From TrEMBL:
Class of this enzyme: transferase
Keywords: Cell cycle, Cell division, Cell shape, Cell wall biogenesis/degradation, Cytoplasm, Peptidoglycan synthesis, Transferase
Name recorded for this polypeptide: UDP-N-acetylglucosamine 1-carboxyvinyltransferase
CDD domains: UdpNAET
Pfam families from the UniProt entry: EPSP_synthase (PF00275)
Record-level GO BP terms: cell division; cell wall organization; peptidoglycan biosynthetic process; regulation of cell shape; UDP-N-acetylgalactosamine biosynthetic process
Species whose genome carries this gene: freshwater metagenome
Pathway entry: Cell wall biogenesis; peptidoglycan biosynthesis
InterPro entries, sorted: Enolpyruvate_Tfrase_dom, Enolpyruvate_Tfrase_sf, MurA_subfamily, RNA3'P_cycl/enolpyr_Trfase_a/b, UDP_GlcNAc_COvinyl_MurA
Transferase in keyword set: yes
Swiss-Prot/TrEMBL catalytic activity: phosphoenolpyruvate + UDP-N-acetyl-alpha-D-glucosamine = UDP-N-acetyl-3-O-(1-carboxyvinyl)-alpha-D-glucosamine + phosphate
Subcellular location, record wording: Cytoplasm
Every Enolpyruvate transferase domain range: 9-406
Length: 420
């Protein structure tokens, strides 16, 4: 049996216009979990069918939600009055976003049993900030035998100061505090566009949250929430991935359905490398003709350069002119993929949170393995610039976040196939 794989060969410069997909993995799944807060029928539109979507559907069904398709890329979630507040290991271990059911289950039922979540192996991925916020709201928590056991008599609004602007902790605290008694304030909250979209959705359900996009969120607790319909934002990471593909392979591509303000730092770094990035009426236009000049990059919470783009820019820097230092401040194991890039002739040395990337004139195609969602995409981009054929094994890692990476790149003229 031939293994599942992407097969990539260098081709002509990329060209064309593409519409970005809905952000399922980091926004849609969270909103599906948040729909638990409102009994009745909620409709979510613009959900791209990535692999993690099926896992979230199974998880919510186990909790008691009836889910039906409502046309292409739209789901109807019928949330019952009585929920089963248990999230089993078999499902939770497959996906990080399953932790997002914890807050809504507590807010609706006063209790929750949720297995410790899985997801990409990119760092230790602690939950202490989620727990600190929940405890401040009046939740009792224990972790035993790989299970989070949480309960509360009454949720009370509280002031929570996060040590770090964690995306997951901000989501957990917010989706619990919406049904608490009184006002909650989250200081040093995450500011990612996906957090803003979750706030928009929660407010449509009837929540009272202000401060979206800033570091201070104020949540006025309400008694109940009611179902609604919402359209998920465009996937800024997919858009950034395609911009990086142009940076790697050259060409002229316009990406519609996304605003440059969600990708400002990516645009800024690509410009520093020598890529032309502009906002037009049709979307973000990315153009590259000459060889790029290396620049240093460090990852930071939004609006800084996102950790999700780090493997992608390392793939771009691998053939830039000069040496770059890349610093990963968010996840401590996210450089594991550089061993794979080295198999393609890249000159990258990673040590702790830093990598030194010395640009080489050209990479050479080789069999490599995707280790996580973005590293998988990064290897495909590296293959676009390499001589010969690159085979990226374990494509399922990339497919947790990209519905059809090969198809999208092919539409822009790239020579990429998904086989197996
Ligand atoms: N952290 C703690 N304690 C906590 C929570 C987080 O120390 O209680 C630490 C983590 O260990 C990590 C850092 O804070 O070092 C960032 O974690 P954060 O909570 O912000 O991230 P996350 O919610 O686990 C989401 C995305 C990631 C994305 C990060 C950062 C989802 C499902 N995942 O993870 O997406 O990289 O935010 O923006 O939304 C990806 O799409 O490739 C991906 C990994």
């Amino acid at each position: 049996m031939t293994p599942d794989r992407y097969v990539v060969r260098a081709g002509p410069p990329l060209s064309g216009t593409v519409q970005v997909s809905g952000m399922t993995k980091n926004a849609g799944l969270k909103q599906m979990a948040a729909a638990l807060l409102a009994p009745g029928e909620t409709i979510l539109n613009n959900l791209t069918p990535v692999d993690d979507l099926a896992v979230m559907i199974e998880l919510l069904e186990a909790i008691g939600v009836e889910i039906t398709s409502n046309g292409e890329s739209s789901l109807c979630l019928r949330v019952p009055d009585q929920l089963t507040p248990k999230a089993p290991y078999e499902l939770v271990s497959r996906m990080r976003a399953s932790i997002n059911v914890l807050g809504p289950l507590l807010a609706r039922t006063g209790q929750a049993q949720v297995a410790l979540p899985g997801g990409d192996d990119i760092g230790s991925r602690k939950l202490n900030l989620h727990f600190y916020g929940l405890e401040a709201l009046g939740v009792d928590l224990r972790v035993e035998h790989g299970l989070i056991e949480a309960s509360c008599r009454e949720l009370r609004g509280a002031r929570v100061v996060l040590e770090y602007p964690s995306v997951g902790a901000t989501e957990t605290i917010m989706t619990t505090a919406v049904l608490a008694k009184g006002e909650s304030v989250i200081e040093n909250a995450a500011r990612e566009p996906e957090i803003c979209d979750l706030i928009k959705f929660l407010n449509l359900l009837g929540a009272k949250i202000s401060g979206a996009g800033s570091s201070t969120l104020v949540i006025e607790g309400v008694e109940t929430l009611a179902p609604t319909e919402h359209t998920i934002i465009g996937d800024r990471i997919e858009a950034g991935t395609l911009m990086m593909a142009v940076a790697a392979a050259g060409g002229d591509v316009t990406i519609g359905g996304i605003s440059l303000s969600d990708l400002e730092m990516v645009g800024r770094k690509l410009s520093e490398l020598g890529v032309e990035v502009t906002e037009t009426e049709e979307g973000i236009r990315t153009r590259r003709s000459d060889r790029l000049t290396a620049c240093d990059v460090q990852t930071l919470p939004f609006p800084g350069f996102a950790t999700d783009f780090m493997p992608l820019i390392v793939a771009v820097l691998a053939t830039a002119n000069g040496t770059a230092i890349v610093t990963e401040n968010i996840f401590e194991h996210r450089f594991a993929f550089v061993d794979e890039l080295q198999r393609m002739g890249a000159d990258v040395r990673a040590e702790g949170r830093h990598a030194v990337v010395r640009g080489v004139p050209q990479l050479s195609g080789a069999p490599v393995r995707a280790l996580d969602v973005r590293a998988g995409a990064a290897l495909v981009l590296a293959g676009l610039t390499a001589t010969g054929e690159t085979t990226v094994l374990d494509p399922h890692h990339a497919e947790r976040g990209y519905a059809d990476l090969a198809g999208q790149l092919r539409n822009l003229g790239a020579d990429v196939e998904r086989l197996g």
